[in-house]
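Bench notes, afternoon.
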Amino acid sequence: MRNSISPTSFFPILLLLIFLPFTQCSIFPLDKSGNLIEQICKKTPNYDLCLSSLLSNPESSNVDVKGLAQIMADILLGNVSDSLNYIEGLVKQAPEEQLERCLAYCAELYIPVVKYTLPQAIEALSKGQYRFANYGISDAAKEADTCEKKFSSSSIQSPLTDMNNLLESLSDVAVAIINTLL
């Protein structure tokens, strides 16, 4: 007697193999987290920035909402640090004294945000102290806005406008994500 699989018994197995990846099974956590990221980003003031920022971090597919907030706060800290480094470089190259003063003022605003405010907010977030985390993270947006206002009050074109706007937007997104935890 010969053991063979008839085409009719093989067909259901073939269908299962073809359509299984398209189902919403718990064995595909990427789909689940992708939906979580989309759901959370829809609750922020800048969906596209939120989505692109979180998806740029491979860890975002394996975390909960608190983890997404942590990732966004880390992204914000990285951007503020980069901005501070950029500003410090511009201060050294400033052709005008008034421009140099405005840039130095912005650097003075960003130094405590990088060294103290955001690291403390990130630590508070990890401990579940969401209101304190929100306060520290929103401070980054306030300092970016204050920096920008320094230029406008001095009638000088700010070389930091795009950077400051990005920092404000990242801060707003991080705060919105944390607000979902409150």
